[in-house]
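Chapter summary example.
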Amino acid sequence: MSDAFISAIRLAAPLHDIGKVVIPENLLHKPGMLDENEWETMKGHADAGFQLLSKSKTSVSKLGARLAHYHHENWDGSGYPDGLVGQEIPLEARIMAIADVFDSLGSTRCYKEKWCDGDIKTFLIEQRNIKFDAKMIDVFVEHYDQFCQIRIDHPDS
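The structure predicted for these 157 residues follows.
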């Protein structure tokens, strides 16, 4: 990928979950599993983020809109909001999906404990061609220690 594309993803990636601003706080911070209705509400953050960011004229915001909309699409078509399959999913969203899951699993959340690095790596490998693009997972796993170091160097505050 070009340096411009890489820089744009770096700037836009933090916007991928901006749609969560429209999700009720009690759902965002609910310990434990969401029920079916709560889950449907939570899934709305993808479209809400797209709607918020797509109104902008800046290229980074437009990229952020695509990240917000498509980062929960799964390689096998089981994701949301559009059920896209394989390479129908924009490249930037396939990258974001892996980064998002890596970050989420490696962080403590109100509904789950932090996973260890070995379990995260195993999960990512198990999800090749299911949730994630296999070629991207192979590259991610090849550089896994570097990604873990980035998380150490830049912890959530």
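To summarize the output: Residues 36-54 form the longest helix (19 residues).
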